[in-house]
Design goal:
Elements (H helix, E strand, L loop, with lengths): L1 E10 L2 E12 L4 E4 L4 H4 L1 H11 L8 E7 L11 H11 L11 E3 L2 E2 L5 E2 L4 H10 L4 E5 L3 H4 L6 E5 L2 H8 L12 H8 L14 H13 L13 H7 L9 H14 L23 H5 L8
Parallel strand pairs: 3-4, 5-8, 8-9
Antiparallel strand pairs: 1-2, 2-4, 6-7
Helix pairs in contact: 2-3
Length: 292
């Protein structure tokens, strides 16, 4: 029997929908196809342990998991939850018609608890674009995904909770957040403000001109002169982010796993403080794409 649901693969700051298919048929062993990396391949052990902890079983027949399109590299442990639900459905341990209407992502622990994942915001944006009913994901990521409107954000804490939801045994109200209200309530709310700087009139004037004209600025001086202190406060005199800029900024932080515990929209211009020994390539960004 074949079961199918949907996940997502993040490349850069954009997401691409992945079809997760599971077929349980005659034979032996567990097979996974679709260019999975080591973390995805190891999902077999996490999935089996979490299923057994809930009283279910891993089929001893031939289990084939396919992540399509098969020519795109799949990375990370966030495919655990959709694979587990598809295996349970394909082996007739659960009955549900909801799997094909949702994007499902989440990392499983050995006892069935769900751990947070990265890249939730671009996945939610892509899910809305493709008209999915909703997004089932770990509850700790739900606020971040709820930034996207017109998409049912279903936060679950365990595999049991996810199973009960897709089987209709438990009703979970979608998390709803007013994105514009969050944005307007926190826009330009900086921890370090330029107005707190005492003295330093010459460099303050130079930074004000740089901020007004969109110029670069370089500060040279001995340790303790206040270079980092002033640079950290420069974003507070820059124009406030627009809502679209805030979404783009939050997408980047989401992919990097740096949205924070609150998981809400980033409404201030980011400040990064790389080490002085950083290479030019690392500073401006670089590397090799995982697309194949």
């Amino acid at each position: 029997m074949v079961a199918k649901t949907f996940g997502s693969a993040v490349h850069g700051v954009d997401a691409r929908t992945i079809t997760v298919e599971v077929n349980v048929t005659q034979g032996k062993q567990f097979h996974m196809s679709g260019l999975p990396d080591s973390a995805v391949k190891e999902s077999e052990h996490r999935v089996e342990s979490s299923m057994k902890s809930l009283g279910y079983f891993m089929p001893r027949n031939k289990v084939v998991v396919n992540l399509a399109p098969a020519d795109i590299r799949k990375e990370g442990s966030s495919y655990d939850l959709p694979i587990a639900l598809c295996i349970l459905s394909a082996s007739a341990q659960i009955e549900t018609e909801l799997l094909e209407h949702y994007v499902i992502m989440g990392e499983l622990s050995l006892d069935g608890e769900l751990r947070p994942i990265k890249g939730v915001l671009p996945i939610a944006i892509q899910s809305r674009k493709e008209n999915f009913k909703g997004f089932i994901l770990p509850k700790k990521n739900a606020r971040e995904a709820a930034i996207v409107n017109n998409l049912d954000i279903i936060g679950v804490e365990t595999l049991r909770e996810a199973i009960d939801f897709v089987m209709g045994k438990k009703k979970i109200e979608p998390l709803v957040i007013d994105t514009r209200e969050v944005f307007m309530g926190k826009v330009n709310s900086y921890d370090a403000d330029f107005k707190d700087v005492q003295g330093q009139e010459n460099i303050k004037r130079a930074l004000e001109i740089a901020a007004a004209g969109g110029h670069n600025a370089i500060m040279i001086g001995p340790p303790g002169a206040g270079k980092t202190m002033l640079a950290k406060r420069l974003p507070s005199i820059l124009p406030p982010l627009t809502l679209n800029e805030a979404l783009e900024t939050t997408k980047i932080h989401s992919v990097a796993g740096k949205v924070g515990a609150e998981g809400t929209l980033i409404t201030t211009r980011p400040f990064r403080s790389p080490h002085h020994t950083i290479s030019d390539v690392a500073l401006v960004g670089g590397g090799i794409s995982n697309d194949r």
